[in-house]
Amino acid sequence: MSSQWVILGPAALYMMSMTLTPGPNNLMLTASGANFGFRRTLPHLFGIVGGCFLLFAGVAMGLGVLFEQYPSLQQTLRWLGSAYLLYLAWKIATAPPPDLRDDATRRPLTFWQAALFQFANPKAWVMGLALIAGFLPANGDAWLNALLLVGFAELVALPCCALWAAFGSVIGQKIRTDRAWRRFNVTMGALTAACVWMILA
Hints:
By secondary structure, the protein is mostly helical. Helix content is about 80%, strand content about 0%. The protein has one domain (about 5-200). The chain has helices spanning about 10-20, 25-35, 40-65, 65-70, 70-95, 110-115, 120-135, 140-175, 180-200. The radius of gyration is 18 Å and the shape is globular. Its main location: membrane. It is a multi-pass membrane protein. Pfam families: LysE.
């Protein structure tokens, strides 16, 4: 391994610290795992990873420069992301218990819904900007370096995020009553909505 890639170790630790800790994606994965099961949550999980890959690669290719040139764009993104997150939090909080759910209208997020959410997720932007600024090697082919770093980062993120979906699936197997389901969904919705405070702070 080239000496410039010694930073992969610290990069892995950075990604683990960011993806193992609570945040909008992980809270939604937990709620989805509980309500729909781990298998049905996989498109949501892979959508997060795929969306972050595209976002981080875009940041590496200069997309992040837009924030420097147009500061108002970052603020607009925060408000749009916060509004959408509140909408998702409301859907989680008002989800009925599984035995009362109409599967035609209540479904987990699709791959593309989860992927597109990353572009409105301020935490994902912060992760991408910090990853590229802190760990992208200065030597060598910029495109190749960016793809290798971002791909490695998402390989680290995948099992970390999967733990939250699995955790939710285990919780879902333990909840027995409709009342407990409603309490769980309201709690998860409230926690997801609370992320807006962190975004706008």
